[in-house]
């Protein structure tokens, strides 16, 4: 099936305005996301969907593809829907523009899951500890026995009535949608739970659409706040330093001396 990655990137974040253009290792954050998305095998197009010309200009400056979309959209998925006729595909992958540490191999897993015609929507999660589960910026998900989402929340779910009894899964904001699901999504109104939690996936669940959830290894945090940005900068600097050390060790000449 033909698949496209579309990266919603909004300039006016309330917690970190202009975050797609925040620099990480001398590159705007959106560039890191695009470059990782381009490493995903089996994808025909990678494009940014934004509401700000500054983001379009930044993406074009490093050779990426970007489209202007309406500033009135209420979610990243709404922004993707605007581009469905411009970027035709069978499956659309939504990778948020604030996920510079996502693993391309995780997205390949998601694409493989979407080959199952019963999977209308798919997303990712990974295990976290009870401390992280209390952070409202960290979205939690609980699953049914088939691996479909029962609910997403900013609250720590499930609630640990008996201390130490709960385990937690963090939602990773990457989705796969079939084209026909996006057509349906465009007709749905925002339910109370979506408006309350500010989680767009709850619109689909309220309409009875199942979301398949794939558990992956823990990944780096998204950039939601200035504190998140600081943490991501530190993590990416550490990754670069570790890679440079490995490359140096691999290229060092080996001694011919026999001991």
TrEMBL record:
InterPro entries, per the entry: Cytidylyl_trans (IPR003329), KdsB (IPR004528), Nucleotide-diphossugar_trans (IPR029044)
Q: Name one GO biological process term.
A: lipopolysaccharide biosynthetic process
What Enzyme Commission number does this protein have?
2.7.7.38
What reaction does this enzyme carry out catalytically?
A: 3-deoxy-alpha-D-manno-oct-2-ulosonate + CTP = CMP-3-deoxy-beta-D-manno-octulosonate + diphosphate
**Molecular functions (GO terms):** 3-deoxy-manno-octulosonate cytidylyltransferase activity
Q: What GO cellular component entries does it have? A: cytosol; membrane
The record's section on Pfam families has:
CTP_transf_3
Indicate yes or no for the key word Nucleotidyltransferase.
yes
Key words, A-Z: Cytoplasm, Lipopolysaccharide biosynthesis, Nucleotidyltransferase, Transferase
Q: Where in the cell is it found?
A: Cytoplasm; Membrane
Role this protein plays:
Activates KDO (a required 8-carbon sugar) for incorporation into bacterial lipopolysaccharide in Gram-negative bacteria.
Q: Which family does it belong to?
A: Belongs to the KdsB family.
PANTHER family, sorted: 3-DEOXY-MANNO-OCTULOSONATE CYTIDYLYLTRANSFERASE (PTHR42866), 3-DEOXY-MANNO-OCTULOSONATE CYTIDYLYLTRANSFERASE, MITOCHONDRIAL (PTHR42866:SF2)
Q: What is this protein called?
A: 3-deoxy-manno-octulosonate cytidylyltransferase
Species per Swiss-Prot/TrEMBL record: Candidatus Desulfatifera sulfidica
User: Per UniProt, what is the name of the gene that codes for the protein in this document?
Assistant: kdsB
């Amino acid at each position: 099936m033909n698949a496209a990655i579309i990266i919603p990137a909004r300039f006016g974040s309330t917690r970190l305005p202009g975050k797609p253009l925040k620099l990480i290792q001398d590159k705007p954050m959106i560039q890191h996301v695009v470059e990782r998305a381009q490493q995903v095998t089996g994808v025909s197009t990678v494009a940014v969907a934004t509401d700000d010309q500054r983001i379009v200009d930044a993406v074009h400056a490093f050779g990426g593809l970007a489209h202007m979309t309406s500033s009135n959209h209420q979610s990243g998925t709404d922004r993707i829907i605007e581009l469905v006729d411009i970027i035709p595909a069978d499956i659309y992958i939504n990778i948020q523009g604030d996920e510079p540490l996502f693993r391309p191999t995780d997205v390949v897993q998601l694409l493989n899951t979407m080959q199952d015609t019963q999977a209308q929507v798919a997303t990712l999660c990974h295990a976290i500890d009870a401390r992280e589960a209390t952070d409202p910026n960290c979205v939690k998900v609980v699953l049914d026995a088939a691996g479909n989402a029962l609910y997403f929340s900013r609250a720590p779910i499930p609630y640990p009535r008996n201390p130490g009894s709960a385990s937690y899964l963090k939602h990773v904001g990457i989705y796969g949608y079939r084209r026909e699901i996006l057509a349906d999504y465009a007709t749905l109104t925002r339910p109370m739970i979506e408006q309350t939690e500010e989680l767009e996936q709850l619109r689909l669940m309220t309409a009875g659409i199942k979301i398949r959830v794939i558990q992956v290894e823990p990944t780096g945090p998204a950039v939601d706040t200035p504190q998140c940005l600081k943490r991501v900068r530190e993590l990416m600097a550490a990754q670069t330093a570790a890679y440079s050390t490995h490359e140096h060790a691999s290229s060092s000449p080996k001694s011919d001396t026999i001991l």
